[in-house]
Amino acid sequence: MKRTTVLEQLTTPDGSTMALVEHDGARIIRVNGRELMSTRHSYSEEQLGVIACQGLAQQKDVRVLIGGLGLGFTLRAALATLGRSAKVVVAELLADVVTWNRNPAYELAAAELADPRTEVIIGDVADVLERSRNPFDAIMLDADNETTAMNTAGNSSLYHAAGLAKVRSKLEPHGTVVYWSAGEDPQLAKRLTAAGFEVEVRRVRKHPTAGGYHVLLVARRGA
Q1: Per-residue pLDDT for 63 more than 70?
Q2: In this structure, is residue 64 part of a structural domain?
Q3: Given 25, 47, 95, 140, which residue has the most CB atoms within 10 angstroms?
Q4: pLDDT at site 7
Q5: Are strands 118-122 and 87-92 parallel, antiparallel or unpaired?
Q6: Between β-strands 17-23 and 4-11, what pairing exists: parallel, antiparallel or unpaired?
Q7: Does 96 map to a domain?
Q8: d(Cα 132, Cα 208) in Å, to the nearest integer?
Q9: Domain of 215: which CATH number?
């Protein structure tokens, strides 16, 4: 049996235990022992960044927002897709997660965090949206924030009518918000439609060629 090594550990604001562990060469974030994300199953997180940003690749001075750093896969994909003049804002609730990613020994997102296009804000993504004076061309959010230990009251608001209206108001005309979900979420899709978005549901593999699927809810704002 291969050994699991705890590399880092912290207590989240709600009292849960979050750990960065290594198992068989993979880096994994666990909350109360439950796997939240892994370097071995990162394809859907990468596709979140690709799909949200692919229509912006040739545009200048693009601004996008990522809710949560995780293991850096969405940030990496967004930076790889966007041009040199883009700004990628990452709202991360826990400063320690940023520190873990910056540690070159863990081979996570040190290079991406050092990219001059990256801006990290420590705080709730809902608060970052509220304070932002300028709209974003794309916003990337995790629909599972509502059901995991990383949930906050602010995050929860982003999945209901008032919060969805706020998200829409913080998008440029024809901007896009993409929600990542571990599974089908028809209720969120209905709420997005009711909020005035054109919604497309995409099933994306956890791994490029095998494994199960995650879901991306791609919601486009009209003019």
Answers
A1: yes
A2: yes
A3: 140
A4: 97
A5: parallel
A6: antiparallel
A7: yes
A8: 35
A9: 3.40.50.150
Residue with tokens 């290079």: 111
Which domain does 177 fall in, by range?
A: 41-221
Residue identified by tokens 């020994």 is 105
Specify the DSSP class assigned to residue 165: H
Distance CA 73, CA 44 (A): 9
Tell me what percent of the residues of the chain surpass a pLDDT of 90: 80
The number of distinct structural domains making up the chain is 1
pLDDT in tens, 142-186: 875 444 445 555 567 788 899 999 999 999 999 999 999 988 999
Could you give the CA distance from residue 66 to residue 73 in angstroms, rounded to a whole number?
11
Helices (H), 85-182: 95-102, 110-114, 125-131, 153-157, 161-169
Note the pTM of the prediction, 2 decimals.
Answer: 0.93
DSSP track, 17-74: EEEEEEETTEEEEEETTEEEEETTS-HHHHHHHHHHHGGGTT-SS-EEEEE--TTSHH
Q: Is residue 188 part of a domain?
A: yes
- Per DSSP, the three-state class of 195 is coil
Do the beta carbons of residue 135 and residue 172 sit within 8 Å? yes
Q: How far apart are CA 124 and CA 152, in angstroms?
A: 8
Q: Which two tokens stand for residue 185?
A: 């979420």
